[in-house]
# Entry
Amino acid sequence: MISEQAKQRMRDLAARYPVARSAIMPALYIAQQEEGYITQAALQAVAEAIGLTVDDVESVATFYTMYYQHPPGKKVIKVCTSIACYLRGCDAVVNHLEKRLGIKRGETSANGNYTFMTVECLASCGTAPVMQVNDEFVEKITLEMVDALVDEWNDALGNISNTNASDGQGRNIKNVEPKTEIRL
Amino acid sequence: MPELIVTKDIDAPGLDTLDGYRQHGGYEALSRALKEYQPDELVELVKKSGLRGRGGAGFPTGTKWSFLAKNDKTRYLCCNADESEPGTFKDRMIMEKSPHLLVEGVILASYACHVSTAFIYVRGELALAGRQVERAIEEAYAAGYIGKNILGSGFSLDVILHRGAGAYICGEESALMESLEGRRGYPRLKPPFPAAVGLYGGPTVINNCETLATLPAIIRNGAEWYASFGTEKSTGTRIFCLSGHVKKPGNYELPLGTPIRTLIYDEQYGGGVLDDRQLKAIIPGGSSTFILGADKVDTPLDFESIAAAGSMLGSGGVVVMHEDTCIVDAVLRMTEFYRDESCGKCTPCREGTYWLTEILHRIEHGDGKESDIDLLMDICDNISGKSFCPLGDAATSSITSSIKLFREEYVYHVREGRCMVGRGVTQTDR
# Structure
């Protein structure tokens, strides 16, 4: 369900641009914030707020990679694998994260805690290798840092250490932000 | 240390706030421009400064402005801050650390171009940069630098921040406009160019983030002062993003014309090649530009010299590779980027980038044939210049240049089924 407040923000955005249609992208962000990903209700709300068909909104939403088509995990981990990070060893980071999280790139863990992705250049080549965790940068990653971070996430999310918890245990525990200070 | 222009004070505490920015001369250029210059005079000033676009193409900024169609349609300005070119990370730094510098640049350019609505298109992945620019816009509105009748000049401007959502293609100016209009980021056919028919059909000027962030200094210090840096045709400074196999990667602002060697080896900048290994190759301007061999290390970093050396200054992203880099694997990695980011609109790029990665993959993993090397060149020839937009051309740069420079490595892969050199990945360093 998209809240009335969110719908109002979408309508305000549509009025702010010279042409209402321009508000599709920010409106999709608002919907995703509420739903976690682009649901049918999200498409519907955006379409209604801006005065377009649902299909039209969907065609835009599916073009851009940051609008999720499936529910993401509580921690969305994106490791850059483009040239500068490649030269500084990002593949080792990817392999290590796959092992520690128990999922492959592109997957979400069964308990809904983690989504792991490899992504294109994140504009942080001077501090490669880099990743983003829920959109915040973690720079100059070492394998030790990966271990420390995964341990903290597991603690905070109630994950069973080092395994791919397949039951729903993690879901019932309140999502507490890890203590790690993510450097920006 | 040469004089810095855009990154001057960049690490000053509080520079990202309005007060902090004003303490370092912020918005002085704006109040001076509104008092002392007619818009057309500002265009002339920027022409005289020789400033050229910092996004990739290097087109003279003032000239671009003067191309805006003179009709009664509403004009728009778009700041292209969709920084996604592999090897480039300067605009993100400007937006995160000095967002008001960009905002002031946007206001100045809008004034010069008679624009009343400006957009700043920030790459979606750069969440902090987006928040910083958004806050700077709000502060500038509150302080009367944006809005109605700015500083009593009669000039009014609206500035809207628009976040991308993950699409490299939206850095291409016509795709950026499509995206801003709420559509899939497919490039438009040119001509008409944005200066004639752009956003919402109006004449539109599109400038890169760093380009706009350079304007306040030019207005404060004058065109001659700016042109006194750099070379005759490549004036001023630019931020070089140094990455890859160097000891001290990072953003370094240097006068144009500084040799690549200085950037890589000087203790103030790169500090030398990682682990003191031999330099093997340099990408001078982001992954879309042709790879240069180590013999070109003394080439001055300016538009003309890099072009004469066989590449482009591009986005200023200088990527260094040392002797242990497997060129085939590195090129495969770069080509995967273009395959993933091809928008799919035109066939040469959509299908071509897919086949390039397939063939590179089989060469890299020992399943290639010697004829595959010529096949790569053939496919590149069928993409470059035959795609709808420059993304297709860009996808071929690293392949064609690396086959010219390092053909023996491709042949070795085919014949021996493995790399000629150690992998470029420096896992021992971690």
About this structure: Strands of chain A lie at 75-80, 107-108, 114-119, 131-133, 136-138.
